[in-house]
Design a protein that fits this description.
With 293 residues, this protein is α/β, with parallel strands linked by helices. The protein has two domains: 217 residues, Rossmann fold (3-Layer(aba) Sandwich); 59 residues. It is built from ten helices and 14 strands. The strands form three sheets. The chain has a six-stranded mixed sheet with strand order 6-7-8-3-9-10, sandwiched between helices. It has a four-stranded antiparallel sheet with strand order 2-1-4-5, with helices on one face. A four-stranded antiparallel sheet has the order 12-13-11-14, covered by helices on one side. A hairpin with a 2-residue loop joins strand 4 and strand 5. The structure holds adenosine-5'-triphosphate. Adenosine-5'-triphosphate binds next to strand 2 and helix 1. Keywords: ATP-binding, Nucleotide-binding, Transport.
């Protein structure tokens, strides 16, 4: 399990990451979200040891992480970092060796992964001759080539077509099934909601939400949609609920407690017919807007 404990990074006067704590438990896929400049890349760099820590700790299995352990972590950096002019397979073999594989094992692993991603025929081509999506696939292969014990991926899904996203998801799931913790950052909230066991939301360098998608949704305000037989404007006269929106026969309201649902229904029926009264479950995108506002 990876734990970050009050991790802090200052750049001069700016505190880019401010006492950030969260865990990536074994076998779980954790989505790391936050607006531009929220501090995701800076946090990931500190986890990987490529950027110094101002304060706090990175812990691996309940002890401060060591350099040797970090060599067993797979990382896909934001700046990507492969060589455009080098043949694909050569750099994969080189990176596999850096991560502790023999040349033979690194070549075998590279070959297998390239086949899996439909890139075996491009193995000897220069990286720059591949499409951006295929270059991205090679970047992922570089992160997983040595069967890492932890995966940290900065925006692995950006620029991928839907099929490539599915391939990537399947690969990440293979790792989590083997008990590997996986942390990845993304701006694609629908994808994060669909895939992740847990979601950590960062805003201005701080964790503002952390939990399973369901937990986060339940933590948000309960809203209802009411559709009546006539004009729904009367909801504005009720002092005990908050009106979010009213348009014609429809109203979106926020109730203080679940018991108020009956109260609202009674009021609506007293005034005429009720076509619909439904609870609106917020999406992770709604929660995100709420906690980062
Ligand atoms: N080397 C640096 N020197 C000075 N400031 C930096 C440096 N690296 C990052 N920052 C600042 O730290 C803050 C967090 O940046 P970071 O790249 O971690 O955010 P992010 O969440 O990854 O953003 P994005 O989604 O845009 O990639 C920003 O204000 C950024 O300008």
């Amino acid at each position: 399990m990876l734990q970050v404990d009050r991790l802090t990074r200052r750049f001069g006067e700016v505190t880019a990451v401010d006492h950030v704590s969260f865990a990536v438990p074994d076998g779980l896929l954790v989505g790391f979200v936050g607006g531009n400049g929220a501090g995701k890349t800076t946090t990931m760099r500190m986890i990987m040891g490529v950027l110094g820590i101002s304060d706090g700790d990175v812990r691996w299995n309940d002890a401060p992480v060591t350099a040797a352990e970090r060599r067993m972590f797979g990382y896909m950096p934001e700046e990507r970092g492969l060589y455009p002019k080098q043949p694909v397979v050569d750099q994969l073999v080189y990176l596999g060796q850096l991560q502790g594989l023999s040349a033979g094992d690194a070549r075998a692993s590279a070959q297998l992964l390239l086949e899996r991603f439909g890139l075996a025929a491009r193995a000897k081509d220069k990286l720059e001759s591949l499409s951006l999506g295929n270059q991205q696939r090679v970047q992922v292969i570089a992160a997983v080539i040595a069967r890492p014990r932890l995966l940290v991926l900065d925006e692995p899904f950006s620029g991928l077509d839907p099929r490539a996203v599915d391939d990537m998801v399947e690969l990440l799931r293979e790792f989590t099934r083997d008990g590997v913790p996986v942390l990845f950052s993304s701006h694609q909230l629908d994808l994060v909601e669909r895939l992740c066991d847990r979601i950590v939301i960062l805003s201005r360098g701080r964790v503002v939400a952390d939990g399973a998608a369901d937990e986060l949704r339940r933590s948000g305000p309960v809203r209802h949609r009411l559709v009546t037989g006539g004009d729904a404007g009367w909801v504005r006269d009720l002092g005990w609920l908050q009106v979010v929106d009213v348009a014609g026969d429809r109203a979106i309201v926020q109730l203080a407690s679940p018991q108020d649902t009956d109260r609202l229904l009674t009021e609506a029926m007293r005034r005429g017919s009720v076509r619909e009264l439904a609870e609106l479950v917020p999406s992770v995108a709604d929660i995100y807007r709420e906690v980062t506002a």
